[in-house]
């Protein structure tokens, strides 16, 4: 960790979560990176706002999209609050929000902010383009 630049160290922690946990399925690392008192201020439907809820969401995404991964376009730091803009990609091979596997390639954008304290992710706020994802899976009509 870059102790001389706390913002860069916090960005690296968030990047590891995106690449190694979400993208690589490393749930032992999830347990290391997330604080026990983690709070998700914008939990996805059907998920709790705690560490267990975030872990379950990541598992559900990996089950539905086994090759789930993100391309990080940019990160910005405001002290220990890291904002990341990224595009997730994957192949729909498992049930997701009640939608049977379609085999379709998907991608959707997300902007999220994560607070990092003492080397742990403690808070999350996020906006994901789930409307686009659901259109790609055929659950919503295509845009006109």
From TrEMBL:
Xref: Gene3D superfamilies: 3.10.450.50
InterPro entries, A to Z: Cyclase_SnoaL-like, NTF2-like_dom_sf
Any one Pfam family match given in the protein's UniProt record, by short name: SnoaL
Domain of life: Bacteria
Protein name: Ester cyclase
Organism: Streptomyces sanglieri
């Amino acid at each position: 960790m870059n102790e001389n630049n706390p913002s860069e160290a916090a960005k690296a922690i968030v990047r590891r979560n995106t690449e190694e946990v979400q993208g690589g399925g490393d749930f032992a690392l999830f347990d290391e990176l997330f604080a026990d008192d983690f709070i998700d201020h914008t939990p996805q439907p059907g998920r709790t706002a705690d560490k267990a809820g975030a872990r379950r969401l990541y598992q559900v995404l990996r089950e539905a999209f086994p090759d789930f991964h993100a391309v990080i376009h940019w990160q910005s730091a405001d002290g220990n609050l890291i904002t990341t803009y990224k595009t997730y990609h994957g192949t729909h091979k498992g049930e997701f929000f009640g939608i049977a596997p379609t085999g379709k390639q998907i991608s959707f954008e997300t902007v999220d902010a994560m607070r990092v304290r003492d080397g742990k992710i403690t808070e999350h706020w996020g906006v994901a383009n789930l409307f686009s994802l659901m259109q790609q899976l055929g659950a919503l009509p295509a845009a006109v």
